[in-house]
Amino acid sequence: MAKKQKKNSGGTPATVALVAAGTPFTLHAYEHDPASPSYGEEAAEALGVSPDRVFKTLVADVDGELTVAVVPVAGQLDLKALASAVGGKRAAMADPAAAERTTGYVRGGISPLGQRKRLRTVLDASASDHASICISAGRRGLEVELAPGDLAALTSAVVAPIGRA
Question: What number is the average pLDDT over the span 17-25?
């Protein structure tokens, strides 16, 4: 990975949080196509990275509490596994407007880092299979590559098998 980016690189709360923490990362920008049916798959293709190394950030409601799930774009979120990972009973995808309002990011650009309100986070265990993964840097067309352990540490994430193929 390259040296950490300067504070103004990317200009998102996610990159500012990474710089403030002194975490090494690489920023990847690409031309976002608004017509793309999948933001994550678009990012993987544009960056030439395997979809199992590009992770999407989803916001779910677990027993009335918004919770972030970070899973590979190559698969889906297992809501039952997410609820179990945080000691909950029931999980459902959050209302998109509530997710945007709470995180401070727009859909397709939600990052697990630098959120307006810090939400509990669960990182899919498959992230540990890779030296680095890519996640949204806080806007469509901008990804940050970092070590999965760094992401888990910065977000105080629970690491659990919450993704499915």
Answer: 96
Distance CA 36, CA 42 (A): 7
Model-level pTM greater than 0.85?
yes
Instruction: Report the length, in residues, of the chain.
Output: 165
Say if CB 44 and CB 50 are below 8 A apart: yes
C-beta contacts of 101-104 below 8 A and 24+ residues apart: 102/59, 102/66, 103/59, 103/68, 104/13
Q: What is the pLDDT of residues 71-104, one digit of tens each?
A: 999 999 999 999 999 999 999 999 999 999 999 9
Q: CB-hemisphere CA count at 13 Å for 136?
A: 31
Q: What is the DSSP letter of 131?
A: S
